[in-house]
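Issue 218. Parser rejects a valid record. Input:
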Amino acid sequence: NAPAAGYVAPEITGDMDTPLEGIGTGSIQVEIVDPALIAENQTYQVIFESEGALPNYETATYGIYTLEGDSAVPVIADIDARSFGPANPSPLVDGFVVTVNIDTALAILPQETGWLIGNSNLDMIVQQHDQFPSLSVKWPADYKITFSDSNIDTSFNSQVPVPFRVWNLSEDRRSEFELFDNDNTGDLSIGDKITIIEFVGTAFKFTYDILYYPPFNAIPRLPEAGDEFVIRTSKPFYSGDVFQFSTKAARSDRELA
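Output the parser choked on:
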């Protein structure tokens, strides 16, 4: 049957592409199945759980919760996240189903990696560390390198003072790094390599190499104070990653009748 005159369909609002909290880079979709069951002004959260510790983990399950004040109240939990995508929606909840899309591969995102602030034209290629394969791990994090006009940090092993700092954006903390001083100048210079370091227990691991290389066929413009270079990676959902959305029930609008 056609809806009555003045009928306004229910609505789902919220950011389905970026978690409210967490490190994962996938997305969710919310599809209305039974418009009559959609609640008025109800806020929901989709919360993920994973198995394993950083950096080796797997998205395991997710649950759908209602937000009641500051508390997330489970509506349905332990939905298998290993079967995901459009063919594997959640059970019906309050008139809708949720579909999750998970980035299972941990990888550098070249199109989202590069200069965030500044006019430097250096060719800062980012790649998985390969010089010492036994120490190399993929780490599920985004990073920001902030440059200064004076030395503000020191490389981990070689203890070379450098005019930049590496920040782990996903975990909101400083990261160690190594400077491979390829020209033996004792400072950061073109041709060097910056390698981000993370720790598994007390053991240090090399993650991503940033090649501090000159541009092709152009005069190099070095980074200046305040310039920022960002590294983005795709990541599976980790325990505590949260999406949030709200529903608005169907209604009748006399002005539309």
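Fixed in the parser; the record now loads. The chain has a mean pLDDT of 94.
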